[in-house]
């Protein structure tokens, strides 16, 4: 516990993997696993969980955890030669015991942890670029959850990568939510071989079937799903959950794009990773950068920041 009342505790999960519990002075908490450097939980001071995790999630390698905030790196989706979403979500990260300092007073009231990932020799065989990935996860004094990533190029040879914070938000029901901030943007539809379309609606809703943008029928019957990457989006996107009267505001920096995914698709491969109809209780809205380059320098790269706030963290007046 530091003098502002913020606490950081390292414990082991039931598979013996270290996890870090962050708690801010008002009782908001977050849990981060070294498996994947993945945030698995973000709770209000009343104990309400704000992130979704599947009841079928497996919390140990070689499985990626279905829920929380997987870090997709060095590849987001299938745009590259690696396995889907890259390997970072499947590796064991370490805690940096001597993290770089915050700017003066920057850590006030914050509960935070710095994690590091460096490639193993096996990683270098499939992706021959030396890097150090530094992830800082923190809870602010008012309960917002923030992630900041910096990628350092270690051997000076420039490389490209993509990155995403694949955030599984917990929602009441997919038909009860709307997403604002994506209006008029162009997006790539993964359900149409990444063809480019322009968002027409005022806000994104899921009340009825979301068809592939080219209007063609799904290849499966009964398919309802969304899987898009919105390009060059505004830095604030909001999810409104009408039934729970809850709003999530997602503020990103250094991340030009936003992925939106819900596998409401009865025959989607991912469906097997969810309990009965559980996929209706989550929506992934992912701050992403589908194309980034490092320069030939060992300097820390520009930060990728994601801050999520929820009105569920606000005290009742
Ligand atoms: O099943 P996973 O590898 O965790 O991926 C889950 C989903 O991630 C992203 O949102 C992709 O755009 C989807 O196509 C993919 O299905």
TrEMBL record:
Keywords: Isomerase. Its EC number is 5.1.3.15. GO terms for molecular function: carbohydrate binding; glucose-6-phosphate 1-epimerase activity. It catalyses: alpha-D-glucose 6-phosphate = beta-D-glucose 6-phosphate. InterPro entries: Aldose_1/G6P_1-epimerase (IPR008183), G6P_1-epimerase (IPR025532), Gal_mutarotase_sf_dom (IPR011013), GH-type_carb-bd (IPR014718). This is glucose-6-phosphate 1-epimerase. The keyword Lipid metabolism does not apply. GO terms for biological process: carbohydrate metabolic process. Belongs to the glucose-6-phosphate 1-epimerase family. One of its GO terms (cellular component) is cytoplasm. Substrate binds at residues 66, 84, 89. Gene3D superfamilies: 2.70.98.10.
């Amino acid at each position: 516990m530091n003098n502002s009342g913020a606490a950081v505790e390292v414990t082991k999960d039931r598979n013996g993997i270290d996890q870090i519990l962050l708690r801010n002075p008002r009782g908001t908490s977050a849990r981060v696993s070294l498996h994947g450097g993945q945030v698995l939980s973000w709770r209000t001071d009343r104990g309400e969980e704000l992130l979704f995790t599947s009841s079928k999630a497996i919390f140990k390698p070689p499985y990626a955890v279905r829920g929380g905030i997987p870090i997709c790196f060095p590849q987001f989706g299938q745009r590259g030669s690696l396995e889907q979403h890259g390997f970072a979500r499947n590796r064991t990260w370490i805690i940096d015991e001597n993290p770089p300092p915050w700017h003066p007073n920057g850590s006030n009231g914050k509960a935070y942890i710095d994690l590091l990932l460096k490639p193993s020799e096996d990683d270098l065989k499939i992706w021959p670029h030396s890097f150090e990935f530094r992830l800082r996860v923190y809870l602010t004094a008012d309960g917002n959850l923030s992630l900041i990533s910096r990628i350092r190029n270690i051997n000076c040879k420039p490389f490209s990568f993509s990155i995403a914070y694949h955030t599984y938000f917990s929602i009441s029901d997919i038909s009860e939510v709307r997403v604002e901030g994506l209006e008029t943007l162009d997006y790539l539809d993964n359900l149409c071989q990444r063809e480019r379309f322009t968002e027409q609606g005022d806000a994104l809703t899921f009340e009825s079937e979301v068809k592939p943008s080219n209007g063609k029928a799904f290849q499966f019957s009964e398919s309802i799903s969304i899987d898009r990457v919105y390009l060059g989006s505004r830095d604030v996107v909001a999810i409104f959950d009408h039934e729970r009267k809850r709003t999530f505001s997602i503020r990103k920096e250094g991340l030009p794009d936003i992925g939106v995914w819900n596998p409401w698709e009865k025959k989607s491969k991912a469906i097997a990773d969810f309990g009965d109809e559980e996929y209706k209780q989550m929506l992934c809205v992912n701050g992403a950068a589908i194309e980034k380059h490092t320069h030939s320098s060992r300097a820390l790269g520009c930060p990728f920041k994601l801050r999520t706030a929820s009105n569920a963290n606000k005290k009742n007046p």
